[in-house]
Design a protein that fits this description.
Strand 8 (127-130), helix 4 and strand 9 (148-151) form a beta-alpha-beta unit. This protein starts with 7 loop residues before the first strand and ends with a helix. It has seven helices and twelve strands. With 226 residues, the protein is α/β, with parallel strands linked by helices. The protein has a seven-stranded mixed beta sheet, sandwiched between helices. A five-stranded mixed beta sheet has the order 9-8-10-7-11. The protein has two domains: 8-103 and 193-225, Periplasmic binding protein-like II (D-Maltodextrin-Binding Protein, domain 2), CATH 3.40.190.10; 105-192, D-Maltodextrin-Binding Protein, domain 2 (3-Layer(aba) Sandwich), CATH 3.40.190. Helices cover 30% and strands 30% of the residues. The protein has helices at 19-28, 59-64, 75-87, 133-143, 159-162, 176-180, 207-225; strands at 8-13, 33-35, 41-44, 49-54, 70-74, 94-99, 105-112, 127-130, 148-151, 167-172, 183-192, 194-199. The longest helix has 19 residues, at 207-225. It binds adenosine-5'-triphosphate and zinc ion (ZN).
Amino acid sequence: GGATRDRLRIAIQKSGRLSEPARALLASCGLSWRESRDKLFCYGETLPVDLLLVRDDDIPGLLADGVCDYGIVGRNVLDEVGADRALRGQPQVSKAVRSLGFGGCRLDIAIPESTEWTGPAQLQGSRIATSYPSLLQQWLDAQGVQATIVNLSGSVEIAPRLGQADFICDLVSSGATLTANQLKPAVTLMTSEAVLAGPVTPFADVRGELASLLLRRLDGVLRLRD
Ligand code: ATP
Ligand code: ZN
């Protein structure tokens, strides 16, 4: 939604796992920028495509509010917001329009190393710590399992040792963090990678043509990378 604009604005992570690969990918699409003093905004020079550098968690909201037109974000973050909207009966405003091939990880339920995994029914009545409460709730509902979700914004992996939770549901790539906390992966809720997130409805102004130009270039770059 939002006002008419004649430039495209893409939100990317300011610093973190996705920031460098996101900028590199957009640069290979022929984009270049002039950075603002505070380095939060990059003004597009070769094309009217600007960047906003933000925390990844803010990207779905910036898209929903129409502040940004596209965002590069983990599918896990986008789908958590989507699951939250679905649980509230609200319509979706953003969707993944391309998978970008970096930032790969899984959202797993992990259990203490000493515990044997017998299946989802084992979670019945337990406390599960996560930063992805809506994705976890949806999955538990689908399994017909009732559990208490302990919503933590960080350091989820130490919750079992602190006695805050019995299990965790967290992002895993190598599994080293789990091992360091005497946990092991039990079941995967979703696999994730960085995606280009965009609006569910097309642009009604010149951004529509800019968007199709960008997507055409992006598809060319992604094809070469395969
Ligand atoms: P921000 O400061 O922007 O909030 P953050 O700490 O939430 O940063 P990062 O740790 O940089 O974010 O992770 C960004 C994304 O990278 C995740 O949402 C996920 O999609 C992906 N990712 C890939 N591997 C991992 C991993 N092992 N742990 C966490 N995220 C991972
Ligand atoms: Zn974050």
